[in-house]
């Protein structure tokens, strides 16, 4: 009889793959505690907590963090509204070109980020829109909508049509049907989509580079610090923060939707 146990070679390959993926992240954590402030010397000559205090007192870090949180929150809110409306229209209605509309909605996340960034920058220039926080939010919303849409449309398709008809037959209006029937069924999918959208927006670099003015989100700040290093371990402390801020929503989205396939589109 065939064994259900994995072979030794497969276990080694799996371990090597995990090590390849996660060892660089572990190095970031280690270098956040190093006493060396100019080079990535291995092994670190010593360990210290002073860089956490230095990071805490850097106003440029707080400005970049505040901007990133603001952009991610507003982009996610826009995506939840527009993505849910698109998903409802595509999944519940029958009209000419429905599949084309669905393709156009998910296209921004399928295109390379640099193409999306160039397209948005050209559009803003043609429209005479100055580059600001607003243009960053609009740029992030293009792919955040896709994440919410993919999560919501999968859940909408699982809602029984007769259930909605029964609600109407019992005298419920559209808002009541949405509140008591639709929302409880799609709530976890929307929450998962919102978490993924927030995480993707928070660490976005390419689209931000093309749509920002003089502002610097946290990932852009980190990129500039690596090019012009000042107190190199501060960048690693901030990187630890970014890992935590993006990892927790993704983990939450995974647990909310692990029974289904509605986390599609999270690979931006």
Automatic annotation (TrEMBL):
Gene3D superfamilies: MetI-like
Annotated GO CC locations: plasma membrane
UniProt cross-references to CDD domains, sorted A to Z: TM_PBP2
Transmembrane helix in keyword set: yes
The keyword Repeat is annotated on this UniProt entry: no
TM spans (from-to): 12-33, 67-90, 102-123, 129-149, 180-199, 235-256
Top-level taxon of origin: Bacteria
Annotated keywords: Cell membrane, Membrane, Transmembrane, Transmembrane helix, Transport
Segments forming domain ABC transmembrane type-1: 65-255
Matches recorded under InterPro entries: Bact_Polyamine_Transport (IPR051789), MetI-like (IPR000515), MetI-like_sf (IPR035906)
PROSITE patterns linked: ABC_TM1
Location in the cell: Cell membrane
Membrane topology: Multi-pass membrane protein
Pfam families tied to this protein: BPD_transp_1 (PF00528)
One of the protein's GO biological processes: transmembrane transport
Family in the record: Belongs to the binding-protein-dependent transport system permease family. CysTW subfamily.
PANTHER family found in the cross-reference section: PUTRESCINE TRANSPORT SYSTEM PERMEASE PROTEIN POTI
Protein's name in the database: ABC transporter permease
